[in-house]
Amino acid sequence: MLSSLCLIPACNITIHEAHEEFSLEKIKSAILSEGYLRHPILVTKMNDGRYLVIDGAHRFQALCSIVLKSLHKL
């Protein structure tokens, strides 16, 4: 059940799984060509105040990679 929609700083998000390079590259390519995410990244708040990705770890990592590459170009 979706209880709320909000923006969370990436530094407050943690993932629980390693990425698969092929999947990551495929998702990065889709985000860059389409300009948006098809599905939101779902998280749950943990006891320490941080958030854990429960669906969308590859999407989260792809977005982080895209943003870092964009910052390096500035």
UniProtKB/TrEMBL annotation:
<feature type="domain" description="ParB-like N-terminal">
    <location>
        <begin position="20"/>
        <end position="68"/>
    </location>
</feature>
<dbReference type="Pfam" id="PF02195">
    <property type="entry name" value="ParB_N"/>
</dbReference>
<dbReference type="InterPro" id="IPR036086">
    <property type="entry name" value="ParB/Sulfiredoxin_sf"/>
</dbReference>
<dbReference type="InterPro" id="IPR003115">
    <property type="entry name" value="ParB_N"/>
</dbReference>
<protein>
    <submittedName>
        <fullName>ParB-like nuclease domain protein</fullName>
    </submittedName>
</protein>
